[in-house]
Amino acid sequence: MAAVWYGTLYKSIDGGQNWSSVGQIGDDMSLIIDIFCQGNYGWLIGSSINSKKNYARTTDGGLTWTSEVLSHNMSKIFFLNENVGWIVGEGIIKTTDGGGSWTSLTSFCELPYVLTDLHFVSENVGWVIGQSGSILKTTNGGVTFVEEKKEKVIPSSLELEQNFPNPFNPSTKIRYSISQPSKVIIKIFDILGREIETLVNEEKPVGTYELTWNAVTLPSGVYFYQINAGEFIRTKKMLLIK
Q1: DSSP for 35-62?
Q2: pLDDT tens, 128-173?
Q3: How many helices (H) and strands (E) does the chain have?
Q4: How far apart are CA 215 and CA 110, in angstroms?
Q5: Rounded to an integer, what distance in angstroms lies between the CA atom of residue 218 and that of residue 240?
Q6: Is 87 helix (H, G, I), strand (E, B) or coil?
Q7: What's phi and psi for 132, nearest 5 deg?
Q8: In this structure, what are the phi and psi dihedrals at residue 182, rounded to the nearest 5 degrees?
Q9: What distance in Å separates the CA atoms of residue 65 and residue 154, rounded to the nearest whole number?
Q10: Of the four listed, 80, 190, 206, 227, which is most buried by Cβ atoms within 10 Å?
C-alpha cells in the first residue's frame, strides 16, 4: 500500500497502520491523482505546475521515479501485471512494456466524455466507465470498444438494422431487436471472413438494443457484422473510412 503527498511517497508494509517515507518524486509532481503498485513496480498519474509532467513510474519500490508527459489529462490507472496496463481519462492508452511506452487506443475526440475508472480481468477483457453513465467493454485488449444500451421498446420480431452512420469513422451504432428471450451472439468479421471481435455473447431478454462499436485502431475497409439468435441469423456490411 502506498500514499503520496506533495511529491513524497509513503509506504506501508503492515496494512496501513504505520507509514514511512521511501522516496520523493521531486518537483515534477505537485498533485497525485492515482497510483497503482505491484510489488516493487509502481505507476502514478497526476499534474504539475511547472514541468507539466503528469506520469511517473518506478521499478524499485518508489526509491527512484522516472517522470514523463502524457498527451492528455488522465484520471485512473490499472495494471494487469508488470508489463500490461491501461490509463483512462481524456481517452484510453495502453502499455505492454511496463509503462515505458504508451499506445493511444481512443482519444477524447472519439469519445466525447471523460472516462473515470477501469478494470481488466485478462489482457483482452475489460470495462471502462465514464461520464453520462457510459460503460465500455472490450474483448480484444482495447483494439475496439463496445457500449450497449437497452431501449424501452417491445419488438414484435427479430431484427438486425443497418449500422449508422455508414460509412463511419471511427464509431458506429448497431441496433437489433429480440422478440423472445434468446442467446444472442454478435460478431464482427473483416473482408476475408476473419473474426475481429465478439460484441455480444449472452442471454438477452425481450427488447431493442443499440451497440456503439468503436474501431479507432482498425484500418479502413469493409467489415461485416452478424447476429445469431436461435434460428435467426443475419449478416450486414459496413464500411470504415479513415
Answers
A1: EEEETTEEEEEEE-SSS---EEEESSTT
A2: 988 777 788 888 888 788 888 777 777 778 999 999 999 999 889 9
A3: 0, 22
A4: 10
A5: 9
A6: strand
A7: 65, 25
A8: -150, 155
A9: 56
A10: 227
What is the rounded radius of gyration, in angstroms, for the C-alpha atoms of the chain? 21
- Say how many C-beta atoms besides its own lie within 10 A of residue 148's C-beta: 17
Which residue's entry shows cell 434460428?
231
Closest-CA residue to 188 (of 175, 176, 198, 179):
198
The three grid cell numbers given for residue 31, joined into one nine-digit string? 498533485
Rounded to an integer, what is the distance from CA 134 to the centroid of its chain?
A: 11
Structure-block grid coordinates of residue 2: 502506498
Asked whether the beta carbons of 220 and 202 are under 8 A apart, the reply is: no
Question: Which residues of the chain fall short of a pLDDT of 50?
Answer: 1-5
Query: For residue 148, which of 206, 237, 213, 229 has the smallest C-alpha distance?
Result: 213
Backbone phi and psi for residue 131, each to the nearest 5 degrees, phi listed first: -65, 160
Residue 83 is predicted with a pLDDT of 92
What is the DSSP secondary structure assignment for residue 132, as one 8-state letter? G
Q: What is the pTM of this model?
A: 0.69
